[in-house]
Amino acid sequence: MSDLKTYEKMIQIKEEEMDQTQKQYNLAVEHFESEATKLYELLKSKENIEGQYESQLSKGASIAYLNNFHHYIDSVQQQESNLQKKVHQARVNMYKKQEAVEEAYRELKKFEKLKDHKVEKQRLLNKQIEASFIDEIAVQQYSRAK
Description:
Elements lengths: L1 H58 L3 H83 L1
Helix pairs in contact: 1-2
């Protein structure tokens, strides 16, 4: 019976580990979504600015406007590059956390299966003991009847 308690304690520990890894994964997903949203917003802004630039070019634009636009676009492209790196890092981290959740789940299932096998062995052993006890009673009753 102490083996069973050991398995139950290990299952409890594995469930806690799984909860922790699930929380870490959820945080990683939130971080990825946040970084991806920032990138999306930047790209959307860049697209709008480029549309305004095209419109201004068709009307005629000053040299100062063109210089300012190119400096702004260079800045946006640098931000885009940095955000793409952050999004990539966040995605890799999210995938690692997902793998950790899957591993924690496998570990939990392994201990649950071990516990189930132990319970089944104990049930079979109890059944054998009960059958042996019933046989013993039957033998004693038969002996008394003679």
